[in-house]
Structure formats: structure tokens, C-alpha cells
Amino acid sequence: MDTFALIGPSGTGKSHRALIVAHECGIDTIIDDGLLIKDSKIVAGHSAKKETSKIKAVKRAIFMEPDHAAKVIDAIATVTPERILILGTSQNMVEKIVEVLNLPPISKTIRIEDIATKNEIAKARECRLKEGKHIIPVPTIELKPYFSGYLIDPLDIFLKKPRSKQRRKLGEKSIVRPTFSYYGKLYISDAAIAAIVDYIATGEAFITKTSQINIKNSHDREKGISISFDVTIKYGLSIWNVVHQAQVRVKEVVEYMTGMMVKEVNIAVKRLSVE
After folding, report:
1. Are residues 155 and 214 in the same domain?
2. pLDDT tens for residues 229-250?
3. Backbone phi, then psi, for 74, in 5-degree steps?
4. What does each C-alpha distance from 241 to 165, 206, 238, 245 come to in angstroms?
5. Are residues 163 and 220 in the same domain?
6. Judgement on whether residues 223 and 144 belong to the same structural domain of the protein
7. Are the C-beta atoms of residues 119 and 127 closer than 8 Å to each other?
8. What is the pTM of this model?
9. d(Cα 118, Cα 112) in Å, to the nearest integer?
10. Distance CA 127, CA 212 (A)
11. Which listed residue, of 6, 121, 177, 247, carries a Cα 20 to 30 Å from 195's Cα?
């Protein structure tokens, strides 16, 4: 197994370019902020971006917790990567990770300055400082079970085909805002979620009114939230179709606007409206 390192100060775009570096160097596995990622899937580990402080995040990123390190070591032995890329803020950090995870010595070190321009690095820093955005080089769907409660957006990455203006999709990354970011902790009241639910449900012409909107929010990011409410729909329509469409729409919009995982949407039809 060959070990590569991608190093650069925090917020300079390492995770943003990790997939491109991996593609160009024939690397199939990435270690980034406490996660072991193989072929765009999280195999093992816990993300440092879930920690509540920067100190805890650093400890998580360098695998200071014995249980955390042991699980990742076992996973590496199972997936047997040919080449592995370690992301870190310094040479000392990546060497520490190599030591803790019992990896072969680093055969090649790539610096962010070698693959990104000064303007690109400056833009990445500004995005981190002003917006608190962090990137994880895996598809958003992979992060749903791990990051419910955070704001997550997908980011498709493309490479230009040689001698062609067409672009080939390289992979998808995700944007998250950890609790230790610039914004600090983010709380969304149940009343705000209820207002979103009412707006989305009644935005469709088939539902004329909502009532008894109830949000069951345990404030546990892993469990998600449950939404239930009553509706009045127009007479003459398929009740099942109207309710099903409303369930899908409410779930999608609430998750998109709040970053919370919606576990269930229960809708009871209490009345029919006749114009």
C-alpha cells in the first residue's frame, strides 16, 4: 500500500480538491478529518466536523481516541486499499496519523500551493471564515445518517475531457456547517418548522388549510424529527395522492431549509372543502 499526503493550512481547499488528486494519482481511499473513505463511501471513523469545539475536532482528526483509531485500523485491513491519501494541515499532522493507524511511510507529499492558485486558496479561506462552510469528499446521501441536524448541500465535481469541451463527472462532495464553525451552534424552533410545513402544504392548490401541526423534536441529530398535522383538501380529488405528494414535498423542503433529517410525516385528512 502506498501512502500519499495532501497538506495545507485549514480552510485552503484540501477537501475540495481531494477527489481530483485521488483521481490523478490512482488513489482509491482517503482519510479526511477522522473519516476513512473508499470509493466515495464512508467505510469507518467519525467526522471531526461533528465535534462541538475545535479542540475536540483536532483530537478526532488525528485519531487520539483509541476506539476510533482501532476501528479505522480494522477497516483498512478489511478493504485493503492500494493507495491511500491523508489530508492534514501540516507534515507533522499527517505523519502522526500514519503512526497512529500503522500505515506505511508517506511516499509522496502534495502541498495545496502546488495544485491551487493563490486566488483559489484566498477564495476558499473567505468561504470558510465568512460562511463557515466545510467540505467532505463524499456524496450527500452518504452523510445523511451521520450529519442530520447540519446544513448539507451537494456539490458535483467535474473534470474536462482531454481535447474536448465536454465535462465528465468525477464525483459528488458535500458542504456542511459544523457546530464549531463561524456561526456557532444553530437552533431552529419548532414554531419555525411548523410555519414552513404550513406554507409548503397550503402552497399546493389541493390543500386549503392545515391545523394541529405538531413537531416532535428530540434535538438528537441522529434520530431526526417527526411531523404530524391535519389538513382540509378539496372535494373530488384522490385523498391518497394528495396526502402522499404533500408528505414528499414537506419532507424534502424541511430537510433542505433546516438541514434536519425528517424521520416521518403523518398527515390526517379531517375535512373536505367544497367550493
Report:
1. no
2. 999 999 888 999 999 999 999 9
3. -65, -40
4. 44, 10, 5, 6
5. no
6. no
7. no
8. 0.56
9. 10
10. 40
11. 177
